Amino acid sequence: QVQLVESGGGLVQPGGSLRLSCAASGTIFSVNTMGWYRQAPGKERELVAGISRSGSTNYADSVKGRFTISRDNAKNMVYLQMNSLKPEDTAVYYCYLLTGRLSWGQGTQVTVSS
Known about the structure:
Layout: E1 2-7, E2 10-12, E3 18-26, E4 33-39, E5 46-52, E6 57-59, E7 67-72, E8 77-82, E9 91-98, E10 102-104, E11 108-112
């Protein structure tokens, strides 16, 4: 069983930055992908970014050039650096870990508003 705990959400003005962190614990196989989804009110959950254990990344078109995903394999951590935030980035952000099965964190709220 895997547990994921996110942190780093909050309220930020448009153009500002936030850094999300996610700590994974439990039974984690060496081959895995970690990343972030988000869900805004009234919308479906969408992939924001993912990163493999080897460091290969993928991003949603809407965040390319503004968000950067990274991970620390030794600590089983994944991070999401979010810059140039826009009001449309407002959502609950969920960390995920795919390692034979898909696990989710509880989510952290990100609100971009003046």
